[in-house]
C-alpha cells in the first residue's frame, strides 16, 4: 500500500470532517478479517442505504471528527476500523453495519 502524501491526508481529513458536520449519526466498526470482496459488498450496501463509509487510519479519523459532535468516539479508533455516517436517515449507517455483521462475524461495532 502506498503511503498518503500530506496533501492527500489533509484532503481526506477535510472530506470526512465535512461529512461529519452534516451527518445525523455515526458508527465505528472493526473490519479485521473481512475480505476485499466483502468490503466492496459492504460499501455497496452503504450507498444503497444512504450511509457514507470510509476506511481511514485512526490518527486521521481522530483529526477528522475533531470539533464535531462525534469527537467523543476517539477511544473507538483502535485497530482497523471503518467509519460510517448517516446522511439522511439517522439510523442508516448503524443499520447497514448491523445487518452486514449478521452474516459476517468479522465486522464488529465498536462505537
Write down the overall mean pLDDT: 93
Rg (CA only)? 13 Å
- Which structural class matches the secondary elements? alpha+beta
The major β-sheet equals: 4 strands, antiparallel
Query: What share of residues are in beta strands?
Result: 15-25%
Weakly predicted, low-confidence segments: none
Strand line-up in the sheet with most strands: 2-3-1-4
The secondary-structure element order is HEHEHEHE
Shape label: globular
Helix content: 40-55%
What does this structure look like?
A four-stranded antiparallel sheet has the order 2-3-1-4, sandwiched between helices. The N and C termini lie far apart (27 Å). Helix 1 (6-22) packs across helix 3 (58-65). The mean pLDDT is 93. It contains four helices and four strands. Helix content is 45%, strand content 17%. With 111 residues, the protein is an alpha+beta fold.
What distinguishing features does this structure have?
111 residues; alpha+beta; 4-stranded antiparallel beta sheet; 4 helices; globular
What is this entry, summarized?
The chain has 111 residues and is an alpha+beta fold.
Could you outline the blueprint of secondary structure elements for this entry?
Elements: H1 6-22, E1 25-30, H2 36-48, E2 51-55, H3 58-65, E3 81-86, H4 92-103, E4 108-109
Antiparallel strand pairs: 1-3, 1-4, 2-3
Amino acid at each position: 500500500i502506498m503511503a498518503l502524501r500530506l496533501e492527500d491526508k489533509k484532503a481526506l481529513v477535510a472530506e470526512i470532517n465535512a461529512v461529519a458536520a452534516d451527518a445525523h449519526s455515526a458508527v465505528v466498526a472493526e473490519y479485521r478479517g473481512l475480505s476485499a470482496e466483502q468490503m466492496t459488498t459492504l460499501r455497496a450496501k452503504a450507498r444503497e442505504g444512504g450511509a457514507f463509509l470510509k476506511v481511514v487510519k485512526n490518527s486521521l479519523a481522530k483529526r477528522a471528527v475533531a470539533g464535531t459532535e462525534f469527537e467523543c468516539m476517539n477511544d473507538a479508533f483502535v485497530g482497523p476500523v471503518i467509519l460510517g455516517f448517516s446522511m439522511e436517515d439517522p439510523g442508516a449507517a448503524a443499520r447497514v453495519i448491523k445487518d452486514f455483521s449478521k452474516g459476517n462475524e468479522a465486522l464488529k461495532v465498536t462505537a
